[in-house]
Amino acid sequence: MAHEAATGRVRQLRLVVEAEDLEAAVAFYRDVLGMPEQESYDGDEGARVVILDAGRATLELSNPAQVRFIDRVETDGGPSDRLRVALEVDDAAAVADDLVDAGADLEASARETPWRSINARLRGPADLQLTLFQELDER
């Protein structure tokens, strides 16, 4: 699979998010969650962008039945946003606690899923719905 990614036409997946309070969002995602700053640029009229490194990127496409199933498993039925950011971490429960302490809203506590991961769901700055997942089996 890694070979396929290396030879595909797309070289990077970048999620672009408008953040009303950019400094707060950067502090949360960079400083609390630990996504290193890769680049940043300033432009005319106060324009600013900060690009954070999220490691490997994938695009997960799910049909509505799968989304409903994920919602039942991850949140006891709480609905997913149409776009949700899933981040793999080493300890989903501990990272979720850190993010809540930093101002995120907990939507569902960490729990084991049928696909052998620990998942937690939160609402972070810039109104991003986040799923933190911790793989229990090596891939």
Automatic annotation (TrEMBL):
It holds the Pfam family Glyoxalase_6. Transmembrane segments: none annotated. SUPFAM superfamilies: Glyoxalase/Bleomycin resistance protein/Dihydroxybiphenyl dioxygenase (SSF54593). Residues 11-135 form the VOC domain. This is Catechol 2,3-dioxygenase-like lactoylglutathione lyase family enzyme. It comes from Agromyces flavus.
